[in-house]
Amino acid sequence: MKLTAFTTAIASAFTASIVTIGMTSSVQAQNAAHLQSLLEHRTCQRCELSGIQATGADLRESFLDVADLRKSALSGVILAFSTMYYADFRGADLSNSDLRNTFLINSDLIQANLSGTNARNSRWKYADLTEANLQNANLIDIELVYAKLNRANLSNASLRNASLYGADLTGANLKGADLYRADLTNANVTNVDLSQANLCRATMPDGTTSLQGCILK
Q1: For a tag site, which of 6, 102, 144, 187 has the least CB within 10 Å?
Q2: Gene3D superfamilies, per this entry (predicted)?
């Protein structure tokens, strides 16, 4: 299968939802088949898709199981209502993507770009977001229980009603973050400056309730 013929066929089938789709010249036919399966059936099990370009692709309600998507260009992708087990998004560009109501378990998002992403009402269990960029992200009602957020950029992110129980936020940037009624019980906030975050009614690591940022009358 020639790469040009493959991408042309895919582009014609998904013109309405995909802005650009491509693969590096070193990708084998098997990997091309994996991409075709993801795009056509929205299912990807043990897929080798590192470095793909699927900017703006509509992949809502997809199922990704042990998928390798490292360093992929997925800006603006729609993955709402998708389920992802052990997905590898290390270094991937997921900026401004739609990740609402997604379920991730043990997924790797180290150094991923999630700036401007909408992940409202998602469940990301044991996600590794070390050094990830979550600036301006919509993380309202998200579950990040025991997530690794070491040195993550959460500046100006909305974490209202978010569950960060047991999360590791060591060195994270929370400047301007909205943590109204967030649950930080047992979270590690070592070297985290919370002075410029809204912590109104948030449950702090020691179990106390913060009034920082509340408008008291």
Answers
A1: 6
A2: E3 ubiquitin-protein ligase SopA
**Inside any domain, residue 59:** yes
pLDDT digits (tens, 9 = 90+) for 74-104: 999 999 999 999 999 999 999 999 999 999 9
CATH (domain of 63): 2.160.20
Query: How is residue 189 written in tokens?
Result: 């906030």
Assess if residue 156 is contained within a domain.
Answer: no
The pLDDT value recorded for residue 28 is 47
- Tally of domains within the chain: 1
Give the single-character DSSP code of 31. H
CA torsion 96-180-110-185 (nearest 10°) is -160
Domain-embedded: residue 24? yes
* Token duo for residue 194: 């919370």
Specify the amino acid at residue 207: G
Any idea of the CA torsion for 62, 67, 72, 73, to the nearest 10 degrees? 0
User: pTM value?
Assistant: 0.85
**Can you say how many angstroms the Cα of residue 205 is from the centroid of all Cα atoms in its chain?**
24
Instruction: List pLDDT tens digits, range 160-179.
Output: 999 999 999 999 999 999 99
Q: In the β-sheet with 63-65, what is the strand arrangement from edge to edge?
A: 43-45, 63-65, 83-85, 103-105, 123-125
Quote the domain boundaries for residue 112: 3-125
